[in-house]
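User: I'm writing a short methods note and want a consistent example. For Ribosome production factor 1, I'll paste the sequence; you return only the structure tokens, no commentary, since I'll be parsing the reply automatically.
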Amino acid sequence: PPAPERVLFPPTFSVSEIKNKQRRHFMFLRWKQQQRKEKLAARKKRRKEREALGDKAPPKAIPKTIENQRVYDETTVDPNDEEVAFDEATDEFAPYFNRQTVPKILITTSDRPRGRTVRFCEQLSTVIPNSHVYYRRGLALKRIIPQCIARDFTDLIVINEDRKIPNGLLLSHLPDGPTAHFRMSSVRLRKEIKRKGKEPTEHVPEVILNNFTTRLGHSIGRMFACLFPHDPQFIGRQVATFHNQRDYIFFRFHRYIFKSEKKVGIQELGPRFTLKLRSLQKGTFDSKFGEYEWIHKRREMDTSRRKFHL
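Assistant:
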């Protein structure tokens, strides 16, 4: 039998004991490399064992993640719940789902937006059909909202920025609310995305809402659905995805590429961004006297890493 591989490091080895910084860094890299080799060897060994066993191989173990170990939330929605069905039939979004209203969106910014925020708004308007970009010019939101309602806008999106970077998104459903405020991060414009596709067409995209399981998540998912016309034009092969994972909402805009009858690829069109819900308010935007349905309070709510609200 071949001689066992010489172990480079003793079992009690600790990189932090090395005083010289360069030597410590070098030894740490070597240690990581060895760990990687051992992991790879163990994986190969397991694969060979599974192949040898064939059909008798035990089922693959499901890895433990924060997501699948989440603490049960008592507000998780059951699709067959009569109370939920009644709420959905009578809430502020019901006219959209009953096809009585057609979405018409106003996209605006904070005062004096910089170039990156302006470009982001323009690209967002190509993703959401029937959306119009207007610049604030110092107008207060309280004055903008009645004008939007008078012109039959169904939703208002406000993109906030800090130090030239878009960092917040306010989404208000008109005329009666609710209003959601999100923190925005990881914004990538089209030109910053590698291997992106050609410019999106004017077809109505398909909308995918993933993993909005609680009552709060359900409301937020319905809010996003209301931004897009109810009848997607599948001929355009475009899809807008809102994927909720650990209370972060990842937005992606793709196009399907059909390679053959069985093979399909996807091509990202952009932009992309990530949202985190800060608050949900009843009615339209009112920072002073508004009644809040839900506010994210970090110290009180984030007691466990496995507790999620959406």
